[in-house]
């Protein structure tokens, strides 16, 4: 674990004399569990890392953190241990592969119990080691709990994952309605659909209802889809990433990643503010 942290520190130090870059914060959420949110989070992070972006993958799924299972790695400590003062941030970072690091999370309710200002300040000082990340992918919990909404509000982009199931669609709409109070732009990914046409059809139905009933300014956009595939289900069972293989599912994920990158590149042209991992978490902690 320490060797992994040292590798990360050395990598970040390569750019210590360069102007600090802006980190893009992407929250991936869902109205209900079981729609493939964490699988999409891990594979999106993998695609970005494979394209030479430095990516942090933060497991913020309250009470159900499972990215370690998906990535087939073993974690011993997580963010809660850092905030209890039992270890440093470096101690919990796991290098999954080149350019990709997992930041194991913990229940937000538990973190609230450990609000020692000195420990928080020490954590924020340590967090600067991750300020050279290009992306932080935040795998949130399902639903619209208070701590989840904090992450969504602070993120540059919010991606809502759903499947073509009535209950999942209803819960996805509830997430859209609540999140629209603080975010004017929301993206959607449709998982386990027959094809792109089915995903677009479900999206248009959701958008029609949203346009008619949500009074807050809202631009809801279709980011992409993943068709039901044995390749994906097989990778989940094997605890591998399907985007490491040359399959149609991998192509679908890469297509939506490309669309996301294009959006963010356009935003960079109009946004010169300094956004870093440490600043992001400082604002999150202030909300606690």
TrEMBL record:
Binding site for ATP: 32-39
Record keywords, A-Z: ATP-binding, Nucleotide-binding
Any GO BP annotation: negative regulation of cell division
Pfam families named in the record: ParA (PF10609)
SUPFAM superfamilies named among the record's database cross-references: P-loop containing nucleoside triphosphate hydrolases
InterPro entries, sorted: MinD_FleN (IPR025501), P-loop_NTPase (IPR027417), ParA/MinD_ATPase (IPR050625), YlxH/NBP35 (IPR033756)
GO CC terms: cytoplasmic side of plasma membrane; cytosol
Keyword check for ATP-binding: yes
Single GO molecular function: ATP hydrolysis activity
Protein name: MinD/ParA family protein
């Amino acid at each position: 674990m320490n060797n992994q942290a040292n590798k990360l520190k050395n990598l970040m130090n390569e750019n210590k004399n360069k102007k600090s870059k802006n980190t893009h914060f992407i929250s991936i959420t869902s109205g209900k569990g079981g729609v493939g949110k964490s699988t999409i989070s891990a594979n999106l992070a993998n695609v970005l890392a494979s394209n030479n972006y430095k990516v942090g993958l933060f497991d913020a799924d309250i009470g159900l953190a499972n990215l370690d299972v998906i990535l087939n790695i073993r974690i011993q400590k997580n963010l809660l241990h850092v905030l209890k003062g039992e270890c440093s941030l470096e101690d919990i970072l796991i290098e999954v592969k080149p350019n990709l690091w997992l930041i194991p999370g913990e229940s937000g309710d538990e973190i609230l119990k450990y609000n020692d200002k000195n420990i928080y300040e020490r954590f924020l000082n340590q967090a600067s080691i991750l300020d050279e990340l290009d992306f932080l992918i935040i795998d949130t919990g399902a639903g619209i709990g208070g701590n989840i909404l904090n992450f969504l509000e602070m993120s540059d982009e919010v991606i809502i994952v759903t499947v073509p199931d009535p209950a999942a669609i209803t819960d996805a709409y509830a997430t859209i309605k609540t999140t629209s109070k603080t975010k004017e732009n929301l993206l959607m990914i449709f998982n386990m659909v027959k094809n792109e046409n089915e995903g677009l059809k479900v999206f248009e139905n959701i958008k029609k209802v949203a346009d008619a009933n949500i009074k807050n300014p809202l631009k809801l956009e279709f980011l992409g889809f993943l068709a039901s595939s044995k390749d994906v289900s097989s990778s989940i069972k094997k605890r591998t990433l399907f985007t490491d293989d040359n399959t149609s599912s991998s192509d679908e994920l890469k297509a939506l990643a490309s669309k996301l990158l294009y959006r963010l590149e356009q935003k960079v042209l109009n946004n010169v503010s300094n956004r870093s991992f440490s600043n992001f978490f400082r604002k999150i902690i202030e909300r606690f």
